[in-house]
Design goal:
heterodimer, A: 113 residues, mainly beta, 6-stranded mixed sheet, 57% strand, B: 113 residues, 7-stranded mixed sheet, 4-stranded antiparallel sheet, 11 strands
Chain lengths: 113, 113
């Protein structure tokens, strides 16, 4: 099975940086995803990491360490519209489970003026 | 290109009834996954269909079932509804099974009274 942990809530000021950590304990691993979900809306894809290291995409970056079972999502130059839930999800390595993602409970980020 | 569509968007049913939810993937996408989202359990995988075949199944009772048609549209059915089935049901489509580019629909909000 998979156990995926991330903080419940984080608060930061507009223009600041926030780092959302995600730790996972899995029997297999074939990629880690980050999604953003605004209240009442569908999750939207932010990033995908399968190899160790940092992936940068504009104001958002995601890091993965497979040996430590650890990832983080870094949000820079925070804007009010970044207030949302951020979901960490892991995909199993088994080929017949590639379409199945296991999600963490989500981290609610609150951006204050 | 139109996104993933789900119908209906909102639904109210009583205990013991059954319900059918529909998902139309992005044109050309052949994989459809279904998820249940509740405040307590977060996003949980229900099943994945690819080319009309169920490829993966989550840990849900047999009351939850699904199917996929030749045009890739998918339906999920929940029989003998329970209060605990109240949730947001999301479907996600991707071009191939297991692709990391998975696009979510807006969801169907099911309330069981």
């Amino acid at each position: 099975g998979q156990n995926i942990d991330q903080p419940t809530e984080m608060t930061a000021t507009e223009g600041a940086i926030v780092q959302i950590n995600c730790t996972y304990q899995t029997s297999g691993f074939n990629g880690l995803f980050w999604y953003q979900q605004h209240a009442g809306e569908a999750p939207t894809f932010l990033s995908y990491n399968v190899l160790d290291g940092l992936e940068e995409k504009g104001r958002f970056s995601s890091f993965l360490s497979r040996s430590k079972g650890y990832s983080y999502l870094l949000l820079k130059e925070l804007q009010m519209k970044d207030s949302a839930s951020y979901l960490c999800a892991v995909r199993d390595e088994r080929a017949d489970s590639w379409g199945k993602l296991q999600f963490g409970a989500g981290t609610q980020v609150v951006v204050t003026p | 290109k139109a996104g993933v569509t789900q119908t209906p968007r909102y639904l109210i049913k009583t205990r013991g009834q059954q319900v059918t939810l529909s998902c139309s993937p992005i044109s050309g996408h052949r994989s459809v996954s279904w998820y249940q989202q509740t405040p307590g359990q977060g996003l949980q995988f229900l099943f994945e269909y690819f080319s009309e075949t169920q490829r993966n199944k989550g840990n849900f009772p047999g009351r939850f079932s699904g199917r996929q048609f030749s045009n890739s549209r998918s339906e999920m059915n929940v029989s003998t509804l329970e209060l605990g089935d109240s949730a947001l049901y999301l479907c996600a489509s991707s071009f191939i099974s297991g692709s990391y580019e998975q696009y979510f629909g807006p969801g169907t909000r099911l309330t069981v009274t």
